[in-house]
Write a structure and sequence with these properties.
heterodimer, A: 544 residues, alpha+beta, seven-stranded antiparallel sheet, 17 helices, 34% helix, globular, B: 265 residues, alpha/beta, Rossmann fold, nine-stranded mixed sheet, 27% helix
């Protein structure tokens, strides 16, 4: 079925909705609402709204539409490309949409699911799932919600929500709007793979309820959306093919695709996600290992070997380049307590960080395949750090996070001398067959430019974050130029200009490297079919 | 030199939640770990071993069969072998019965021990009694709250830096002796993948009440002088004053007025 109808939402009294008027007031009293982790500067907006429910959200959209003011939607403001940074008009914070609504077992899919309002953070969601303690359900749940919860508690197994973006304070709605991914995307895929249902408010204030598996594009590549007044809008899918990599560049498109996938990763261009239903997975014990290696090239060899060894199933596969380890060694010397790990082995010239299933109390442990793969690549199992208790797993994760923190601290220090400086972190991914080529491009170009840089991240998905640390303004300009060259190269290798951060307001130029003007027009036509007056999230994906 | 490290398995949380109706600990979803202070004690033992190659480190615990995981962790972190003292008859042991059982197990299973190390306390019970009691039962000298320890050149004495409420003391004790460990100023070890796999093939011996030279009346609940009647969390401190639903400027004025009134500013 490719036809779907929206439903009218009752509208609250606009005057009773909590709001802050005037940019000066917002800027002085609510500055944190005006940017995200991109630290992009906002354009002056007239209002900041805090709707409590969909009826208030619909009333805001109606009023803003009448006043010909656009709206920007903000979740937890953890994005890296300025998606929620206001661009004139009004800013709507969805922070009050913060209730978990149901936990239930879906019999046909044989899986546990959580239905939640959009502002619940991943940290809160995971903590409630882990403890099987859902205060919202106990406080406000009806009998069906309470019985679902009781059944969940009675299940002897424990569960988790697999997507793990680095920033666990992200809101679930935000992670769906951006199709967030993280280290475990290597095994479990991005957020898209775990979304089972969405509730979306369109720019006219009407809502769509979209379960996965019900609405599919027609063979001609169309959806038809009817509103409560009997009008219809035809959505024609773009004709491009998505890169065969992890990707958040441009709208998702595939023949006879599920309508739900159009909204996932659309960065708020089509509608406002108010509710999300996601699937959970049974939790099993894990071991994480940081395996030290001689060189970056040996690390890439081992990545290939691990991916080709079908007996080994890793949850994630991450990378520290040799120069990243050097940076961490320096930090260790300056502040050993902050790093809180034994000395990084002197001979280590790179490292891989990976996780796999592990039963600590099993009578016999057989990791022959993994051991053989590591040893046959010339690495030694004794040059590693291993963890399986929760606090130890967290310790290795903290070690992973201390690298970007250290980079941020260095940039902040340099900014004192050169205020124009900022970090340059790439987000490019290429197909498996091009990992080695792309690495060579990075290394050759950066060495020739004599810039300070480190590399880390999701090497299992050929998605390495190159971080350039400019020392002055001219190095920043040089770095920006090189980043553009890398993006063009990634496209040449059939990769993507943004694997997980999205396009937002920061990478629009890169999108033009990846898609032809015709394809960009097709995307724009889809946006206008859903949002004819371009009310929603102006400046995201398309220049204003 | 032979070093015995007495360890305990504890719940992996610091804020223990208690069921208010039954007065029992809520253990749902909580995993167990090696008590952090025991890990510090083990770290000292492994450090001594790295300084004196002819040293053997043996981890020992009294606990249910699942306490084996704490011993496996010790073996991963550098212990050479381990002893699990486990029997239903040990259930309900207080600190005295625990110390008596452990001391008897050390005598029964291990000979010629030069040094017994323990954590200063377990993070679940927080009693800090088992170490000193064990020293008394075995009639050994003891130093508590050790943060650094080195053998003297004759290897017959141990020099220990210990924490006090006002600073540090450096003491020497003749061996054999019992020393309990505080956190100290070091980075915790982490095993390699190889260490984790190797731990599974190291010797882990299990002994029961039958192996000990103790009467049943000296074991577990029967051998305990104290008994836990109930467990309850301390009364929560009252929250401060919370201003809600106010414009920031008005709220700031009210806070400033309060601070002035209470003469904080």
């Amino acid at each position: 079925m490719h036809e779907i109808s929206t439903k009218l939402t009752p509208m609250a009294d606009f005057d009773n909705i909590r709001r802050i008027d005037g940019f000066e007031h917002i800027k002085n009293e609510y500055p944190t609402y005006l940017t995200d982790e991109s630290k992009l500067s906002p354009e002056a907006c007239d209002y900041l709204f805090f709707p409590m429910d969909e009826s208030e959200l619909a009333a805001i959209l109606k009023q803003m539409s009448d006043r010909k003011l656009s709206v920007t939607i903000a979740g937890a403001r953890t994005g890296l490309v300025g998606g929620c940074v206001p661009c004139k008009g009004a800013l709507i914070s969805l922070e009050n949409f913060d209730r978990v609504q149901a936990v239930y077992y879906d019999q046909p899919a044989t899986e546990w699911r959580i239905q939640s309002q959009c502002a619940v953070s991943l940290r809160s969601l995971n903590s409630q799932i882990a403890s099987k303690n859902f205060p919202d359900l106990i406080r406000c749940g009806d009998s069906a919600a309470l019985s679902g919860l009781q059944r969940f508690k009675n299940d002897p197994d424990h569960y988790f929500y697999p997507p793990d973006p680095t920033e666990m304070s992200a809101s679930i709605g935000g992670t769906v709007a951006t199709n967030a991914s993280g280290a475990r995307t290597f095994r479990y895929g991005p957020t898209r793979d775990w979304v089972r249902g969405l509730r979306v408010m369109l720019s006219d204030g009407e809502t769509l309820s979209i379960p996965r598996g019900k609405y599919f594009a027609s063979p001609g590549g169309e959806f038809t959306v009817y509103d409560s007044r009997g009008n219809d809008r035809r959505i024609t899918l773009p004709s491009y093919r998505m890169p065969r990599t992890k990707n958040t560049s441009g709208f998702y498109a595939a023949p006879q695709m599920d309508l739900i996938d159009l909204f996932i990763g659309s960065e708020g261009c089509f509608g406002i996600i108010t509710e999300v239903t996601v699937a959970l997975l049974r939790r099993t014990d894990k071991m994480s290992v940081v395996q030290f290696l001689d060189s970056d090239e040996q690390a890439i060899d081992l990545v290939d070997a691990l991916r080709n060894e079908k007996r080994v199933q890793l949850d994630f596969l991450e990378f520290y380049s040799g120069n990243a380890l050097d940076l961490l060694r320096q930090r260790q010397k300056q502040d050993p307590k902050a790093v809180d790990m034994p000395a990084i082995p002197e001979q280590a010239g790179a490292a891989l960080f990976f996780e796999f299933g592990f039963a600590p109390m099993a009578n016999k442990l057989d990791y022959t395949a993994l051991e053989e793969t590591i040893k046959s690549n010339g690495a030694s199992l004794s040059d590693s750090w291993a963890a399986y208790e929760n606090r130890e797993l967290q310790r290795l994760k903290d070690f992973r996070h201390i690298l970007p923190e250290t980079i941020n601290a260095i940039i902040a220090e340099r900014k004192k001398q050169h205020p124009e400086l900022h970090k340059l972190g790439t987000d490019l991914a290429v197909p498996d067959s091009r990992l080695r080529d792309m690495w060579q491009v990075y290394k050759d170009r950066l060495s020739a430019a004599d810039l300070q840089w480190v590399a880390f991240g999701h090497i299992g998905n050929n998605h390495i974050h190159i971080n350039i640390l400019p020392r002055n303004g001219s190095e920043l300009q040089e770095g920006l130029k090189i980043y553009g060259q890398f993006a063009a190269k990634a496209v040449e290798f059939n990769g993507t200009v943004s694997a997980e951060h999205g396009i937002g307001k920061m990478k629009i130029k890169f999108l033009e490297l990846m898609y032809s003007p015709e394809h960009l027009d097709e995307m724009r036509a889809m946006k206008l079919a859903f949002d004819p007056d371009s009310l929603l999230n102006p400046g995201n994906i398309f220049p204003t | 030199m032979k070093i015995v490290v007495c360890v305990k398995q504890v719940p992996e949380i610091t804020d223990v939640k208690v069921n208010p109706e039954t007065g029992t600990l809520i253990r749902e979803g909580i995993t167990s770990i090696l008590n952090p202070f025991c890990e510090y004690a083990l770290d000292h033992a492994v450090q001594l071993k790295s300084e004196h190659k002819d040293t053997e480190v043996i981890a020992i615990t009294m606990g249910p069969p699942q306490a084996k995981s704490a011993l496996l962790r010790c073996l991963e972190l550098g212990a050479d072998r381990a002893v699990l003292v486990s029997d239903l008859k040990f259930a309900g042991a207080d600190t005295w019965a625990t110390a008596l059982t452990l001391s008897s197990a050390i005598k029964a299973a291990l000979s010629d021990v030069n040094l017994i190390l323990m954590g200063k306390q377990a993070i679940d019970g927080d009693t800090a009694q088992v170490g000193p009691e064990l020293a008394e039962i075995l009639n050994l000298p003891q130093i508590t709250y050790g943060v650094e320890m080195h053998l003297t050149s004759s290897k017959k004495r141990l020099r220990v830096k210990r924490e006090t409420e006002s600073g540090y003391e450096v003491l020497e004790v003749r061996l054999p002796a019992v020393v309990s460990a505080s956190k100290g100023d070091f980075i915790r070890r982490i095993p390699s993948f190889e260490d984790v796999l190797a731990a599974r093939v190291k010797e882990l011996r299990e002994i029961s009440a039958d192996d000990l030279d103790l009467e049943e009346t000296e074991l577990g609940l029967r051998g305990s002088f104290t008994q836990v009647i109930s467990v309850f969390p301390p009364q929560q401190k009252q929250g401060g004053i919370k201003l809600e639903g106010l414009e920031p400027e008005i709220a700031a004025r009210q806070i400033a007025a309060y601070l002035r009134e209470e003469q904080f500013i």
